[in-house]
């Protein structure tokens, strides 16, 4: 009975983390597409608030996971060790990299006086480090869930995490390249 309750809390933590990542990704995509400063302010505010869910979800994942490892699974299982390392990495580096940049976007949007976002504000929104971090974090969490379901050996677990990082980096590059800032809005081409 206790095992099932602890497993439920562990899964609940993973669901909360996925929801937080989904809201963060939606907020960032919405900021990137925003044509007015008020929307950038609104979406960046939501992103900053959402970042507060990550520590809670990490605790909900880690504490039950430790119980499950000690009581049933053991430390000799490769997918557990690789997943734990990836989770700890994202839990520490994510907020360190993301929160400061998201707060910077919010502060810049609140200081903006024009209704249309300035190029400086949109450059903050298009921050490559932020986009790479969030995208890689998202793919690592997906990789962790994959390992929880498939339970691969060490080589498979490591390959899964390397692929997650590569896909995350690639997704960020595609998103940023598809949403290049407009160079001129006055030029119309007729053929």
TrEMBL record:
Transmembrane intervals: 6-32, 53-73, 79-97, 129-148, 154-176
Pfam family, one: DUF2269
Keywords: Membrane, Transmembrane, Transmembrane helix
InterPro entries: DUF2269_transmembrane
Keyword Metal-binding attributed: no
Protein name: DUF2269 family protein
Source organism of this protein record: Planococcus massiliensis
């Amino acid at each position: 009975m206790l095992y099932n309750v602890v497993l439920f809390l562990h899964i609940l933590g993973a669901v909360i983390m996925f929801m937080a990542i989904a809201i963060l990704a939606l907020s960032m995509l919405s900021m990137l597409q925003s044509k007015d400063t008020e929307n950038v302010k609104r979406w960046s505010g939501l992103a900053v608030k959402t970042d507060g869910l990550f520590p809670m979800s990490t605790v909900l994942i880690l504490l039950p996971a430790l119980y499950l490892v000690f009581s049933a699974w053991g430390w000799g299982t490769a997918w557990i060790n690789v997943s734990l390392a990836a989770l700890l990495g994202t839990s520490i580096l994510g907020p360190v990299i993301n929160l400061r940049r998201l707060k910077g976007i919010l502060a810049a949007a609140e200081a903006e006086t024009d209704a249309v976002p300035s190029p400086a504000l949109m450059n903050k929104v298009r921050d490559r480090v932020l986009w790479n971090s969030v995208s890689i974090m998202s793919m690592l969490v997906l990789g962790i869930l994959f390992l929880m379901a498939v339970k691969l050996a060490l080589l498979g677990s490591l390959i899964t995490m390397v692929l997650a990082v590569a896909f995350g980096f690639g997704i960020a590059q595609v998103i940023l390249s598809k949403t290049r800032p407009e160079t001129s809005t006055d030029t119309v081409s007729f053929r």
